[in-house]
Amino acid sequence: MNSKDQNVQIAAFVELLAVPLAQATNPLFDIIIEENVTIQKYCNALISKILKLDQSQFPDFIDYQFNQVTNPEVWICKLEKLLANNEAFFSSKTAMSRYNKLYILIEKKRTELQSSSIKELIAKTPKKFINAESEDRHFSFYEIKKQLEKITDDNQKILLLTKEMFEYQQANIEFINQKIPLYDNQCTKEIENIYALQKIQAAIEEAQKNKIVNQIPSTKMQFNGNVNQLVDVFYQLHRELFVDGKPYIDGNTNDLIALITNSFLDKEGKEISPQTVKTILKPSKEEKRPNNHKRIDIDKLL
Predict the structure, then answer these.
(1) What is the rounded CA–CA span in Å between residue 140 and residue 183?
(2) Quick one: what percent of the chain has pLDDT higher than 70?
(3) Other Cβ atoms closer than 10 A to 233
(4) Which pLDDT does position 200 carry in this prediction?
(5) Are strands 264-265 and 242-243 parallel, antiparallel or unpaired?
(6) Residue 257: partners with Cβ closer than 8 Å, 6 or more residues away
């Protein structure tokens, strides 16, 4: 029976592990799909595989798939759902035997997973702390908050909350606890709280930085030469002298004007005019800069 010719009802598999035949490492048990993998194609191929395998190969097939997927519990639940959605494929006596054999194996695997000694024992969350339940899992913001307390990086917290929010919104919810807020709303609110705290923390750090800066004396230094000599020193470092292909002082003209006028007074102890500095810094205003014999030759000092 070719499942591609049948009306296969899908199950919401989370992992669609399929490969083209040329890339298959175990063609007998691999799910073979030559084109782009979709959930419909995956379910078609899985039903087709089940109908073609010998019943004696079912245990090895399921074990093989278990070793491929990252969450065997979810996969086995989806396989069970797929079988239930497609009982019509197993109407014949022979096919019904396959159906029953698979269900027995599914229950056996589920029991093995639940009783496995290496399975981490997780304390059962009280019902009052469960926001919602789907066929695969429950959603508890109470549990998520405990996980968040162990994470120090805000970006990782936001990533976890976003994943949980999307998973909840895409899940087939079967139960919602009306006594506590909706799960995705709580995740969204927590993300907003993280961003708000980041903003407040940034403001605190900025205030502390400004406080330190304000504590530094801001008395301007008096330059006892001519203003054009002072400005020319910065002109040389910005326009004429380079290190590794870059000027010694990198920045724009406004940065230099602010630096000079905020740091120096002229030889008479007066404020230096920003417009005067701007004029001297213009490359075309060579006559405003000092003559060679009055120029402070920075190149000789470096």
Answers:
(1) 7
(2) 92
(3) 20
(4) 93
(5) unpaired
(6) 274, 277, 278, 281
What DSSP character marks residue 250?
-
Instruction: Quote the crossing angle between the two packed helices 72-85 and 58-68, to the nearest 10°.
Output: 130
238-265 as b/e: b if 16+ CB within 10 A: beeeeeeeeeebeeeeeebbeebbeebb
Considering the entire predicted model, what is its pTM? 0.39
pLDDT higher for 279 or 93? 279
Q: Which helix (H) or strand (E) holds 124?
A: none
Nearest CA to 44 out of 52, 70, 66, 75 is that of: 52
Residues near 27 by Cβ (< 8 Å), separated by ≥ 6? 21
- Alpha carbon 67 to chain centroid, angstroms: 27
Cα distance between residue 7 and residue 93, in whole Å: 20
Strand 264-265 relative to strand 246-247, pairing: unpaired
Rounded distance, CA 46 to CA 65, Å? 11
C-alpha separations of 95 from 10, 174, 273 in Å: 19, 31, 95
243 falls in which pLDDT band (50, 70, 90)?
A: confident
Encode pLDDT of 137-187 as tens digits.
899 999 999 999 999 899 999 999 999 999 999 999 999 999 999 999 999
Helices and strands in the chain, H and E counts: 11, 7
Band of pLDDT at residue 218, cut at 50, 70 and 90: low
Tell the burial category of 46 from Cβ atoms under 10 Å away from its Cβ (0-12, 13-18, 19+). Answer: buried
Dihedral angle of Cα 37, 41, 43, 45, to the nearest 10 degrees: -100
Q: What's at 179, amino acid-wise?
A: K
